[in-house]
Design a protein that fits this description.
seven-stranded mixed β-sheet; 9 helices; alpha/beta; 372 residues; nine-stranded mixed β-sheet
């Protein structure tokens, strides 16, 4: 999602974030207004939010006494495995996930106090045959297949994963420009001019009047150096402390979309500085409502929300890897508070294929000679 703005739009002083409203993805529900927070969240505490000229900060819900149920659908570490090619034929993965998301949205479309948001917690490329379509430099880029299908399914936001940076900043920028109709979030990434205007520290979604702030975080582990870029990742805990007071003023629900990994004790992937457990331990109770994670490929809460995954009062969710699960987090918002009331994992193989959405694969099958 690119902001078509004059360069002066990005000349924002330290301690300030610009809040700008953006057009919705045409494939996402029209009942959700979308705002991006633009600026550097790593430089210090955010003391002010600047809304666009002539605009106002989103107001609190008018029907604050009535409860609202927000359903968050999430997945992580798909690594481009939008479909499998095997001796048994094509095995759709993302067409099942997209169909499930679409069915939920249709179910709640006319309900004034129900809403759905859909997120990826990062690592959406590197690890599938579709990497051949991305290429190895901008001149031979054809498409980012996952981003294109996420856009077609109306995914609301993605966190930046460490393997997404394996593409290099120039190629990642090309993929975002060509195929992403959603914001890429990373509050603790700094120093990358190639990605300026293409990623954001946070986004604000106003779903039928409910204000949902979503902050992206990226692990500094396993980041390949790039000679033409000064990108670097800073302490996610410090960045969260910079952001949270400002976001609390404009949101009813706060979600961290994390590609930090489950904890520093995880053995399935390198976790540096902090994982989701350490992040939750360091934050004030009640400052965020859930951490939706990735990176370490944990399938958390298969039997419902486990007490082991509630840290400092903050539930932590993660949906495995390679599209094996679709995760759900339900947040119930009342007059005085918001709380997670249900968490589950749904095996993707049990979901029906959305045959209409599967037509979106036809432009990928045209490249079968490349994929073979």
């Amino acid at each position: 999602m690119l902001l078509q703005r004059d360069p002066s739009f990005f000349a924002i002083p330290p301690g300030v974030l610009r809040l700008t409203r953006v057009a919705p993805n045409p494939n996402a529900p029209a009942d959700c207004a979308r705002y991006l927070l633009v600026g550097d969240a790593t430089a210090g505490p955010i003391m002010a939010l600047w809304p666009d000229e002539g605009a106002a900060l989103p107001a609190a819900r008018a029907d604050g006494d009535a409860s609202f149920r927000l359903k968050i659908v999430h997945f992580n570490d798909l690594h481009g495995q939008i479909t499998y090619f095997s001796q048994r034929g094509v095995q759709p993965v993302f067409a099942r996930m997209a169909g499930y998301i679409g069915d939920l949205r249709a179910r709640y479309a006319n309900h004034p106090r129900r809403g759905v948001l859909a997120f990826s917690a990062g690592d959406d490329s590197v690890g599938s045959v579709f990497d051949a379509l991305i290429g190895d430099r901008p001149s031979n880029f054809q498409m980012h297949a996952a981003y294109r299908l996420y856009s077609a399914a109306g995914i609301d936001a993605c966190a930046l994963g460490n393997h997404d940076l394996d593409l290099g900043p120039r190629l990642l920028a090309q993929a975002l420009l060509a195929d992403a109709r959603f914001p890429l979030l990373s509050a603790n990434l700094a120093g990358c001019s190639w990605l300026s205007g293409l990623y954001f520290p946070a986004a604000l979604f106003v779903v039928k009047g409910l204000r949902v702030a979503v902050i992206g975080l990226t692990t500094p582990g396993q980041i390949a150096p790039h000679p033409d870029s000064t990108l670097h990742l800073v302490d996610p805990i410090r960045v969260m402390q910079n952001l949270l007071p400002a976001l609390a003023e404009i949101s009813d629900v706060r979600i961290v979309l994390s590609h930090l990994g489950y904890s520093l004790r995880a053995s399935s992937a390198t976790v540096l500085m902090a994982g989701d457990v350490e992040l939750a331990e360091a934050l004030p109770p009640g400052s965020i409502h859930a951490i939706i994670g990735g990176h370490t490929h944990h399938a958390l809460n298969e039997q419902g929300l486990s007490l082991h995954n509630i840290v400092n009062g903050i539930p932590i969710a993660q949906a495995g890897k390679l599209g094996e699960f679709v995760g759900e987090v339900d947040v119930t918002v009342g007059r005085r508070c918001a709380a997670v009331t249900s968490v589950q994992l749904i095996p993707t193989r049990e979901l029906p294929v959305d045959e209409a959405f599967a037509v979106s694969y036809t432009h990928l099958r045209a490249h079968e000679t490349v994929l073979d």
